[in-house]
Write a structure and sequence with these properties.
Number of strands: 0
Structural class: mainly alpha
Number of helices: 5
Largest sheet: none
Length: 191
């Protein structure tokens, strides 16, 4: 007979184990949403990206490919080449967010679009006025970094067992890639 504490611990470790097993997939989902979102802003809404936005894109877009390939290949070293991109993206996004919020006043961007431009102010007001495009990128890079850090710490526990778990992980990854491809095709049709 088990005690209530053991039941709670088993339930908690089950949830943590599930999160640990899905951490690479959550990172991939965050990268894909961020990539699709930035393309939506620039290609559908026609909001021209500033210089710092381009740097964030340079760091985010490859993450979708790297994470997808790492998941499909069950690469145990995925965090070694994806985590530096996401951490650098966090730095650029944080700096850009401070600039948009006018908390720092660095030299202006050298591009045609100023980096302090705020497209979301007319849309998000009141308690949501802190949400800016660099904030959205910062959240995505942070989610990716935390999930990859979890994957690095968990080691082999983060990879599904070679049986049905591997097939399920591959099926999930292929499903995410298929949905992203449909979204990209949809965005292309709108343009």
């Amino acid at each position: 007979m088990t005690s209530q504490g053991e039941d709670e611990q088993a339930e908690s470790s089950g949830l943590i184990g599930l999160l640990t097993a899905a951490c690479r997939h959550i990172a991939l989902l965050a990268a894909m949403i961020a990539t699709c979102g930035s393309l939506f802003f620039s290609e559908v809404l026609h909001w021209p990206p500033c210089q710092l936005c381009w740097y964030q894109r340079i760091l985010m877009y490859p993450l979708t490919v790297i994470l997808t390939m790492g998941i499909l290949r069950r690469d145990r070293g995925l965090h070694w080449y994806a985590l530096p991109l996401s951490l650098a993206g966090m730095g650029v996004s944080f700096y850009h967010y401070l600039e948009v919020m006018k908390l720092i006043s660095p030299p202006p961007c050298s591009g045609a679009v100023p980096c302090s431009i705020d497209y979301l102010t007319p849309i998000l007001t009141g308690p949501l006025s802190f949400i800016k495009i660099p904030f959205l990128a910062l959240v995505a890079f942070t989610i990716i970094s935390v999930m990859l850090g979890n994957f690095a710490v968990a080691g082999d526990e983060a990879l599904p067992n070679p049986g049905g778990g591997q097939a399920a992980a591959r099926g999930w990854a292929l499903g995410v890639v298929a949905v992203t491809a449909v979204v990209f095709l949809g965005l292309g049709a709108m343009i």
